[in-house]
Amino acid sequence: MICKNFKTRNKNNKKEKRIYYYCSKQRKEITYINCKECPYKEYKSNNNQIKKRTYNLAKKEKNRFSILYNQLNKCCICGNPVVELNEVFEGAYRQLSIDYGCIVPFCNQHHNQFHNDRSMNLYYKSLFQEKFEKTHSHEKFLKIFKKDYTYLYEKESMKNLH
Length: 162
Known about the structure:
alpha+beta
């Protein structure tokens, strides 16, 4: 394990270009051996918070549910039994998708299509928005997911018609 004060730096000037080791506690250039024998050695603490978060996320992913589909063991489009459970609202909203049941079972082909086809993506987002708004308010959906996907889907559909 390496001390948290041990840094690797580059020295780039007209005279020389080299990499050297630096101790931020002693504020001087050192060798690796000096770091091993240093009286100021401090190790980074174990970050148990990350493990706990990872465990909780794994637990939530294992117990995923869908507010729209009862059967999560076959593709919702073609019925293929080999499925990938996909969060409808991805990225920063992935965790919220898991929490609110915005999960869609897709086979590999339809999963790729969902991510590559904007109109299909917006279609499923608008479906889940409508289902979500039957039990919650429109304002709550906008507060959580930040966009009105029904409006975006209608706008995309009108654009494709022309």
